[in-house]
UniProtKB/TrEMBL annotation:
Keyword set includes Membrane: yes
Record field: transmembrane: 9-30
InterPro entries, A to Z: FAD/NAD-bd_sf
Protein's organism: Sistotremastrum suecicum HHB10207 ss-3
Protein name: FAD/NAD(P)-binding domain-containing protein
Keyword terms of this UniProt record: Membrane, Transmembrane, Transmembrane helix
Length: 586
């Protein structure tokens, strides 16, 4: 009798065990699938590798734009193609100054630093980089960290950026990483771009720099595969002297950023293609304040670990329900301190330490700005650092507005609108050998510092695809060409890896009533996501497990889907319920 009773129990226990094992297995399978599809972690190893056999594909790649995205793309393409041209309109980048960047260090007669990158608005603005960027750079250039440390011994540091939400500090995942957080690059944007250009010039013997502009593409009218657009046969390049030349190409890459030259090229053909794009304006304004600082004046600052040992002092994002101001503070190379003050439709334009202090005192949050931040400001003021300070306002680029068809009033002191060019929706009509990446496809609110990392994601996606495919023989031309579905596969893959950035950033920006939404949308869009993220980020200020999940996903070293995993979702639901009960009782 006892045996008969135990048998059903054994079956139940076995079934439960089977369900648990299957759940664990499916969970691992799903996460690995997310890593493969929505991150470039699996592509990192191939960034520094040449093609199998070491033979490059005969043909020319033309890259329009020689900024971060263009340089990363050039390195990737140099591993696979016999010849790579970077076409960049700013002539000084092709001189010695392009690899030394003395221009940035030289002040004008009024004591202000110029912006030598006339086509890169945010060149001298405060930049922050994610862990993924350094992981990719180390794969591309094994000596990158050593060279970066020649700029500053602290150029490579622990990835604790002192993130605060609504005034509360997020816990650093020290337990998960056994007190040894991953590292990230910590230099000003000019130093990063200059160092990257130096590496490309030194280590990529098949990369050429051309001063000029890609003005258009020429399609092969007689050659089109079924279900695919026509192929780009050549591009037109105008030199700095106005001389027009035609360059036959195997691949064309648009890395022109907000110029979005690829859209112009496609629309200028005999069969223009309407490519859908979403545009919204968060009316983001911010000023980068930069000070020359003798570290000895900061000896009395009570920052944990000491001022001289810190790189990041504060990264603050507000709760949209109560505040619209944001502040970031980083120490950079050459004894400089950068402070970014801005926000959503703010009017403040700091021009002194006292202006910054006034700005910070107005910020509302669950906790006040730490006292050591004001101690730093006091030290700057007491030692006359205002005299050598520079202040750079990020302003809207006039030429972008007509192109984006945005007909709303906005200040010329704001950041250009956010946009998402949806190439992935028309891949069957696009040329098979024309792709766009970085800001040429998507521009996000810069407060999250995702621009440079997005460029790395695009370059790594391209690298992975190039390692997978083999060129095909084309009987029409008698040459080897890229497969007809090359651009299609690239855009589909890139979309899966950047889509979440657009969705989350847009939902967050819609939390401010001054944001001008995408046409056809309202600011109510993304309300649930805002609620979820707010409660999730609140958790990270108290719970290290939640902080670890946020850290890894926000640093691009884990899939974004981790933040909606079962455990985190339950924690967020409980936190949201507690918030609701607290507000109800109040």
């Amino acid at each position: 009798m006892a045996l008969l009773m135990q048998t059903p129990l054994a079956y139940v226990a076995s079934l439960i065990a089977l369900i648990v094992v299957a759940t664990v297995y499916l969970g691992k399978w799903y996460r690995n699938k997310q890593i493969a599809e929505t991150t470039v972690l699996n592509e990192l190893d191939g960034l520094g590798k040449t093609r199998v056999g070491g033979n490059r594909i005969e043909g020319t790649v033309v890259i329009a734009g020689g900024s971060i995205a263009g340089l990363l793309t050039a390195k990737v393409c140099s591993n696979h193609f016999s010849r790579v041209l970077i076409v960049e309109p700013e002539a000084w980048l092709s001189t010695t100054a392009g690899t030394v960047d003395d221009t940035y260090s030289t002040k004008q007669g009024d004591g202000k630093k110029p912006n030598p990158r006339t086509r890169v608005q945010q060149y001298i603005s405060l930049h922050n980089y994610h862990v993924l960027t350094l992981l990719g750079l180390n794969q591309m250039f094994p000596s990158f960290e050593a060279e970066a440390r020649k700029i500053d011994p602290d150029a490579i540091v622990s990835a604790d950026v002192k993130f605060h939400f609504n005034g509360r500090p997020m816990k650093a995942p020290l337990g998960f990483y056994k007190a040894n957080l991953p590292k990230l690059l910590s230099v000003a944007r000019p130093s990063y771009e200059t160092l990257l250009r130096k590496f490309v010039r030194k280590e990529c013997d098949n990369v050429e720099f051309v001063v000029g502009t890609v003005t258009g593409i020429n399609l092969d009218a007689s050659h089109q595969a079924v279900g695919h657009g026509r192929r780009v046969q050549s591009v037109n390049i105008r030199s700095k002297d106005g001389v027009e030349t035609t360059e036959p190409v195997l691949l064309v890459v648009d890395c022109t950023g907000p110029t979005m030259a690829g859209l112009k090229w496609i629309n200028a053909t005999d069969k223009p293609l309407q490519i859908p794009k979403d545009v919204y304006d968060p009316k983001m304004h911010y000023t980068t304040c930069e000070f020359e600082v003798d570290p000895t004046i900061m000896e009395k600052v009570e920052f944990p670990g000491g001022y001289i040992n810190a790189r990041a002092f504060y990264v603050g994002l507000p709760d949209s329900r109560i505040e619209r101001r944001t502040m970031l503070m980083f120490r950079r190379e050459n004894h400089t301190l950068q402070i970014s003050c801005g926000g959503w439709d703010v009017t403040d334009r700091p021009r002194s330490v006292d202006d910054i202090r006034t700005f910070l005192k107005q910020i509302k949050g669950a906790e006040p700005i730490p006292a050591y931040i004001f101690q730093i400001l006091d030290a700057l003021e007491d030692n006359g650092c205002d005299a050598s300070a520079t202040f750079h306002d990020d302003r809207c680029r006039k030429n972008i507005l007509p192109m984006l068809h945005v007909i709303v009033n906005r200040s010329f002191w704001g950041v250009a609108p956010c946009y998402f060019v949806k190439y992935h929706e028309v891949v069957d009509k696009l040329p098979a050998n024309l792709i766009s990446l970085g800001d040429s496809v998507m521009r996000l609110n810069p407060v999250r510092g995702q621009g440079c990392t997005k460029a790395m994601v695009g370059a790594a996606t391209l690298s992975g695809l190039l390692h997978q495919f083999q060129p095909v023989f084309d009987a029409h031309t008698g040459t080897r060409i890229l497969p007809h579905d090359f651009a299609k596969k690239f855009y589909k893959s890139q979309f899966k890896r950047i889509e979440s950035l657009w969705i989350e950033t847009k939902a967050d920006d819609y939390g401010w009533d001054t944001t001008v939404p995408v046409e056809g949308e309202t600011l109510k869009e993304g309300a649930f996501l805002r609620w979820y993220v707010r409660n999730f980020v609140n958790l990270t200020t108290k719970n290290e497990y939640a902080a670890t999940v946020l850290f890894n996903s926000s640093m691009f070293i884990a899939p974004a889907s981790d933040v909606i995993g079962p455990k985190i979702a339950l924690m967020v639901a409980w936190a949201g319920l507690q918030e609701y009960l607290s507000s109800y009782n109040t």
